[in-house]
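Suppose you are handed only these lines of text.
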Amino acid sequence: MVNYRYLGHSGLKITEITYGNWLTHGSQVENDVATQCVHAALDAGITSFDTADVYANTKAESVLGEALKGQRRESLEIFTKVYWPTGPGGPNDTGLSRKHVMESIDGSLRRLGTDYVDLYQAHRYDVETPLEETMQAFADIVRQGKALYIGVSEWTADQIRAGAELAKDLGFQLISSQPQYSMLWRVIEDEVVPASQEKGLSQIVWSPMAQGVLSGKYVPGQELPAGSRATDEKGGAKMIQRFMRDDVLERVQGLRSVADELDLSMAQLAVAWVLQNDNVAAALVGASRPEQVAENVKASGVEIPAELMAKIDDVLGDVVERDPAKTLEGMPKARVA
Ligand code: NDP
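From them, the structure of the protein bound to NDP can be written out as follows.
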């Protein structure tokens, strides 16, 4: 079974391995396989599920809602997000304006087939909307009971501090930050994690397996495994590109001996690695097949000794990304008047 961790300073407990459906539900995998993956997660003891309105342009929420139908609502923790464009992509179908946030939560609840989500997250920071406006909208959503808690995703340390302070003034808590974090991508360690600890937020981290790369299945010079994300022309192949470099893939192969020492698969080692960080409440793990879920949950509760943590660093060397500025990579820096 999967261990629970508190989310930030709140009383909410979530499974330290949380199932996420980016690129899979409503896109890479058929709906029956999506349902099998969700059921594999439930069977393994996962009760926390992460999605977003933008995934497969709202279809992923519907597929997840359908797959969770019939489950006891109180036994689930459902997370979704708002920010990226949805629907026809009109001027107000995006961002964190009061209009888009208040309209989006209703769409998400309808698609997920629930009266409330446990965690509603700002999928990015919106430089076009005053932070006060966004946080007031979140406060109202919490007061309406449509979301129980609020979180953010890929916000910088300063943005997290400002958001947490406003939330406190408005009578609610910001409890989570959702950044990319893996053995290969450690940009949150220097700034986001300390700011989050100071303000009472946990990390729930995405792509802990670097989208499958850290499972070791992509071997330099060999054909891509059939059906894998790197072959998914609907979106996955483009998203995983950052890690599909020979120098990265070669270094990753060096992790096999570390995994062997712990009697783990490389996929399990990757998930266990992010969970060694005390500020991480959950690894958000994706799957294209139910067997992957069954394998990955075995990372719960694994302790990696300090000498093997050091060995991982030696093996990966300079392919690890640590620059905090990468949090804002590709994001607009200011509102255009
Ligand atoms: P992972 O790093 O866990 O990658 C998951 C993918 O790796 C699977 O879909 C599968 O792809 C492959 N895989 C999983 N298990 C195994 C295994 N045991 N052996 C071999 N391959 C395996 O995470 P994701 O990139 O999927 O992200 C997880 C979640 O994080 C998302 O669903 C979403 O909830 C969240 N997220 C949030 C973002 C944000 O901006 N806030 C951005 C991105 C993700 P395949 O079989 O197709 O190769």
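What can we learn from it? The beta strands are 4-6, 13-15, 17-20, 48-50, 77-82, 117-122, 147-152, 174-177, 202-206, 280-285. The CA atoms of residues 189 and 322 lie 8 Å apart.
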